[in-house]
C-alpha cells in the first residue's frame, strides 16, 4: 500500500473539491523520475505519464481502481480494499469541532484544550506547543480527513496518558460525530524546535464484520500487518503486527517477512508518501521517496516464492502540486505480479478497490460481499 499515490482525478473529484488533482502525474511533471523498476512492471501502461516509459512487455498485470465509497481518507480506502464499501462518508470538520464535541471532551478529561482548528499537525505543534507546555492543555486539531487528533508533549502529558485521552474521545465521538480515527500525536523538544515522535497511535472505529482480514484469520490463515494496518482495522483479523517508523523500516520488515514460510496475507502500509510529503506539499521529498521505493522492487521480486502474488496499490491521492494539503479524490494504480502471474494483462479501470480484496479472497477459496476478482485473468 503506497499511501496516497493516486493516479488522476475521478469523475466526481470536483464534488470533493479536487478537480484537476493528479498526484502521480503532477509528480512526474515536476521532474523526470528514476523509477525503472516500476516502469518495467507497467506503471506507465496504466495511463500516459510525463517522462515515464510505457513498457513494451510489462511484467505485471496493470490497471487503476476507483473508490466506490463516499470518501477519500485512509480508513475508507483501506476498508474498501477489505471489501467494505461505505455508502456514507465519515464526518469531517473544516471549521473545527462544534461546541458540543469540544465541550463534552473537555468535561470528560477535566481540563481545557487548545487549537480546535483544521491545520497541519506540524504547524499546529509549533504554533501552540509553548502554550501547551505552559498550561498542560492538550492540543486538539483535525484535517480534511475524518480525524480527531490530540497532540501533547511527552514531558507534559505522558504517552500512556495521551492514549487514555484518545480512548475517552473515541467513546464520546459516536453517532453523527463518529470520526474515522482518533490519533495520538506525541511530540518532544523545545519551543521553536518541537518534533513529533514515532509513538503515534490511531484509535479507529471497528470495521463491519466479515471483511477480508477476519475471513482469512477464521480460515486459519496468517494476516500480518506492517505499519499502521492493525490500527486501521482495530486489530480485527490481524494475526501478527509490526509497527514501523516510516517507509524504510516498513520496506525492510516486508522484505524480512517475505522470506518466511507462511500461508495468508502480508499487508504493508508505507505512510511516508502521505504523512511526510503529501500533507506538507513536499514535491521533491515525494519524488525521492518514490525513487527509494522503486530501488527496493527488484529485491522484493527476488523474495517472492513460486506461488506468491504481490499487489501494489494506494488508498487515495494527495496531490502535492495543488495549494491544498488534503487528500484528493483520485483513481489508484494497480500492479499485480509474481513468478506465476501473467504480465502485460490490462485489468482496465475498475469500479472499486474491493476488487483487490475479492481477488485475495478468491485465491484462498473465500468470498467477500463486494468486489470482482481478477485472479483468473492473471493466472496462466
The CATH class of the largest domain is identified as Alpha Beta
Percent helix range: 25-40%
> What is the domain tally?
2
Shape call: globular
Any idea what the CATH superfamily of the largest domain is called?
A: Alkaline Phosphatase, subunit A
Binned strand content = 15-25%
Could you state the order of secondary-structure elements as H and E?
HHHEHHEHEEHEEEHEHEHEHHEEEHH
| Largest sheet, strands/sense/barrel | 6 strands, mixed
Helix/strand-derived class?
Answer: alpha/beta
The termini sit apart by 25 Å
The CATH architecture assignment of the largest domain turns out to be 3-Layer(aba) Sandwich
User: Gyration radius, to the nearest Å?
Assistant: 20 Å
CATH topology of the largest domain: Alkaline Phosphatase, subunit A
How many E strands?
13
- What is the typical, i.e. mean, pLDDT? 95
Q: Helix tally? A: 14
Low-confidence stretches: none
Give descriptors for this structure:
6-stranded mixed β-sheet; globular; 2 domains; alpha/beta; 14 helices; Alpha-Beta Plaits; Alkaline Phosphatase, subunit A; 4-stranded mixed β-sheet; 380 residues; 34% helix
Amino acid at each position: 500500500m503506497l499511501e496516497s499515490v493516486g493516479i488522476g482525478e475521478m469523475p466526481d473529484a470536483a464534488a470533493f473539491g479536487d478537480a484537476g488533482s493528479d498526484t502521480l502525474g503532477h509528480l512526474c511533471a515536476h521532474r523526470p523520475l528514476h523509477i525503472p523498476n516500476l516502469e518495467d512492471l507497467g506503471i506507465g501502461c496504466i495511463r500516459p505519464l510525463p517522462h515515464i516509459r510505457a513498457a513494451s512487455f510489462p511484467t505485471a498485470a496493470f490497471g487503476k481502481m476507483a473508490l466506490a465509497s463516499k470518501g477519500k481518507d485512509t480508513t475508507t480506502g483501506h476498508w474498501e480494499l477489505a471489501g467494505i464499501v461505505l455508502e456514507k462518508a465519515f464526518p469531517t470538520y473544516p471549521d473545527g469541532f462544534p461546541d458540543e464535541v469540544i465541550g463534552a471532551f473537555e468535561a470528560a478529561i477535566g481540563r481545557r484544550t487548545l487549537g480546535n482548528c483544521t491545520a497541519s499537525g506540524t504547524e499546529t505543534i509549533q504554533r501552540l506547543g509553548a502554550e501547551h507546555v505552559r498550561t498542560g492543555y492538550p492540543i486538539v486539531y483535525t484535517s480534511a480527513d475524518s480525524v480527531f487528533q490530540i497532540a501533547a508533549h511527552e514531558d507534559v502529558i505522558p504517552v500512556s496518558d495521551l492514549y487514555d485521552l484518545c480512548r475517552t474521545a473515541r467513546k464520546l465521538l459516536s453517532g453523527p460525530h463518529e470520526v474515522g480515527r482518533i490519533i495520538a500525536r506525541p511530540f518532544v523538544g523545545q519551543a521553536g524546535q518541537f518534533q513529533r515522535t514515532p509513538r503515534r497511535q490511531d484509535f479507529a472505529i471497528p470495521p463491519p464484520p466479515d471483511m477480508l482480514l477476519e475471513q482469512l484469520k477464521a480460515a486459519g490463515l496468517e494476516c500480518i500487518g506492517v505499519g499502521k494496518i492493525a490500527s486501521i482495522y482495530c486489530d480485527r483479523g490481524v494475526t501478527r503486527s509490526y509497527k514501523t517508523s516510516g517507509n524504510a523500516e516498513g520496506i525492510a520488515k516486508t522484505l524480512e517477512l517475505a522470506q518466511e514460510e507462511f500461508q495468508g496475507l502480508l499487508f504493508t502500509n508505507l505512510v511516508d508518501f502521505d504523512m511526510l510529503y503529501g500533507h506538507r506539499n513536499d514535491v521533491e521529498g515525494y519524488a525521492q521517496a518514490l525513487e527509494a521505493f522503486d530501488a527496493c522492487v527488484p529485491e522484493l521480486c527476488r523474495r517472492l516464492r513460486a506461488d506468491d502474488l504481490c499487489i501494489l496499490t494506494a488508498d487515495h491521492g494527495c496531490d502535492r502540486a495543488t495549494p491544498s494539503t488534503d487528500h484528493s479524490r483520485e483513481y489508484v494504480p494497480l500492479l499485480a505480479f509474481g513468478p506465476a502471474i501473467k504480465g502485460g494483462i490490462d485489468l482496465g479501470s475498475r469500479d472499486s478497490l474491493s476488487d483487490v480484496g475479492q481477488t485475495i479472497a478468491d485465491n484462498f477459496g473465500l468470498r467477500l460481499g463486494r468486489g470482482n476478482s481478477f485472479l483468473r485473468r492473471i493466472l496462466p
